[in-house]
Amino acid sequence: MSQQDNENLLCPDCSSTLVLHSGEFVCSNCGLVVSKQYLAPVFKISQENLSTNQYKHNLALGNRMHIVDGMGSYIDFQRTPYFYDGQGIPLSSDKQALYRKLKFRYSLRLRIDRRESDYRALKSLNHVASMLQISVSIRDRAAYLYQKAVKKIDKKISNHIVLITACLFFAIREYKELAPVTIQEVTQSFKKLGHRISVKKVIKTALELRSLFINKHPEIRKSEDYLPRIISDIMSSPIIEHRLKERGFNIEDYRSLLTQKSHYILNNIDNIKRGGRNPYIFAVSTVYCADRILSKKIERKPILTQKILAKITKVAEYSIRDHYTSVLKPMIIIR
Fold first, then answer.
1. What is d(CA 215, CA 213) in angstroms, rounded to the nearest whole number?
2. Mean pLDDT of 252-276
3. At which of 193, 221, 249 does a domain end?
């Protein structure tokens, strides 16, 4: 696709210009993530769901799960940015602006007619997916679960935003280490958009939705799921890069050793010893312990401190210290 073609692409939501960001087209105005090519979500589907007409319809070619599309005609073609009269002569500049405005208003009304709540919920989902930098597959999976829930819930839905947040929670848990995002981060992103929402409400709604989603529970997060994200954040820190060079470490070698040692520690600590500890905080503490083991092995000062690690990962220092002292410190002896 040429650069000129990219500039001509318009947002299907607000008709603003799309810009290329991290391999995806993103609206410069509303932040809507528009993929160049539809990528079907990768997840396990039961044979019963695969055979239903509803599921086939939802994954039909051209049906965009994350956008409310209306039925009916458009002014000219769907994404036409330039208009001509009946003789093929371009309209004047003032008429171009007029018809572009009319086209946007008319198309928007068609899409959201009688589905205003779905439109707001899916629009918020697109914003949050962009803010959290999660893949379009996870976003589309959440949109599919949301539309499935809306169709199956008999009673009136009191809060569509809480519902779609719970669906995103399910989708993120299904992708495990491919989506190392916490429920607190998801909820906080929706709050930044001005929605009144809480973690307690989201979890309560998710538990109520279990029967709709093949009687399944949300996948329980493990600390292993967060390791790639935590180590990536650590290695991207200028402070860590400076400390590694100061102590004569090769950056990639350190990344590899830190990853291996962190996995080794977690493999030797079962769920009973971990108890009900927060898996993200426990993973951060595990990386801290892994660095201590590596420094002792090569007889050099540790790269990570509790203060630096707390700043990078946004975890309280006392939480790292508590997890390390009560559970992980014996691992230095039995390494």
1. 6
2. 87
3. 221
Residue that terminates a domain, selected from 221, 255, 278:
221
42 with 154, same domain: the answer is yes
Q: Is the per-residue pLDDT at 286 higher than 90?
A: yes
Distance of CA 9 to the CA centre of its chain: 24
Q: In this structure, how many other beta carbons lie within 10 angstroms of the beta carbon of residue 141?
A: 25
191: in domain? yes
Report residue 19: phi and psi, to 5°: -120, 150
pLDDT in tens, 43-81: 444 433 433 444 444 444 345 666 665 545 556 666 677
The CATH number that applies at residue 148 is 1.10.472.10
| Together in a domain, 206 and 266 | no
Three-state DSSP class for 25? strand
Helix (H, G, I), strand (E, B) or coil at 154: coil
What CA dihedral angle connects 291, 295, 297 and 300, to 10 degrees? 170
Percentage of the chain exceeding pLDDT 70: 74
